[in-house]
Amino acid sequence: MTRSYFGTDGIRGRANATITPELALKVGQAAGLAFQRGDHRNRVVIGKDTRLSGYMIENALVAGFTSVGMDVLLLGPMPTPAVAMLTRSMRCDLGVMISASHNPYEDNGIKLFGPDAYKLSDEVETQIEGLIDTGVGDRLVSPARMGRAKRIEGVHARYIEFAKQTISANGRTPGKGLNLEGLRIVVDCANGAAYRVAPEALWELGAEVIAIGVEPDGFNINRDVGSTSLSALIAKVHETRADIGIALDGDADRVIVVDEKGQVVDGDQLMAAIATLWKEDGRLSRPGIVATVMSNLGLERYLRGIGLELARTAVGDRYVLERMRADGYNVGGEQSGHVILRDYGTTGDGLVAALQLLAVIRRRDRPVSEVCHLFEPLPQVLKNVRFAKDAPSDDVLLPVIERARERLGDGGRLLVRPSGTEPVIRVMGEGDNGDLVNSVVDEIVDEISRAVA
């Protein structure tokens, strides 16, 4: 029986335990065979973040790809969205990002992009998994047909120029150039993949840039810095009296912002600010955005008030993107900071999203605290119930959930779902009455706890 290697965002696990050189070699061979196209020399582009284990995985992947006849272009440390962009821009047959995103350095992962720069479909992932398990057999190429590998220069400048071309002075004409002179910006690169490109892009646009999280040593990626650990950014914004703080994660596909007062601006508020301006300028491909079931009800109400809909999906930027592609939306994302702008990219791009927000701030000519707090989030409570063996059955859960929803009425929202990564049931409630939300969530948690005891 075929083992499942891919999760919701590629293959991920502990380096040299789950993500071993042997596995990386097999992934390179399997993905290389799956993406052989025509009779030309097929090629793959590989980027990585700053984890020490990236060297090991990169070399194993190179061995795998070249053994099945693919040429390899090595980018070095680059953001995930840059790898996706360069896959299509350089007419590669496949793109690979070596990263475990916001996880600590001990973890690593392998993300794959097709020639269209989108993440792979379930069907293609299943095909690759089958090849990993069965092996490549006699499909290794002859010595004369083995692939070559080389490092590519100038890719940082190429991505920076791409990112700069997505914004404009007036918010209407991409490519005319946004001037950030007079803005003092703290950017936290999480000691990760964007440690070179993000500060450089902001500086080239005229901003005064204070960069933190830009001293990677192989071990400190996401450690007390980045979009999942905002204390250092908040302190630096206060210390330097900055206008805005921008935090990326380890592979720079998500962004969280801090305003001049040190208040956190999450993905919901970012999407609201961008969508509002795009609606005014007629740039929305349809009147709404896509977000997950975790986005705050306050966002949904705000959008409804300006004539936009909120289409919800399951948790995961992959599901957001699938809905955007299927229904023609061009703005979507997650509360956690994945913001997908399909006019410019095929995956979440923290730098591009930040630049789009800066364009909004310039256009409004008001402080970030005013531009980026368009709605008051409703009180939201999230609790987890861990179970040892089996999750509670629907017969147990459904009556409890129904009673809770009746108590909340139209003034709130409830979500009960099993985690996709660990044996827990997640219970999320939100509503106008914070005390009622807490009471409802506690009631459900108690019922589930009794059922799994």
Automatic annotation (TrEMBL):
Gene Ontology CC terms: cytosol
Domain Alpha-D-phosphohexomutase C-terminal, residue spans: 383-446
Pfam families: PGM_PMM_I, PGM_PMM_II, PGM_PMM_III, PGM_PMM_IV
EC number, UniProt record: 5.4.2.10
Catalytic activity reported: alpha-D-glucosamine 1-phosphate = D-glucosamine 6-phosphate
Molecular function (Gene Ontology), one example: phosphoglucosamine mutase activity
Family (UniProt): Belongs to the phosphohexose mutase family.
Protein name: Phosphoglucosamine mutase
Organism: Pseudochelatococcus contaminans
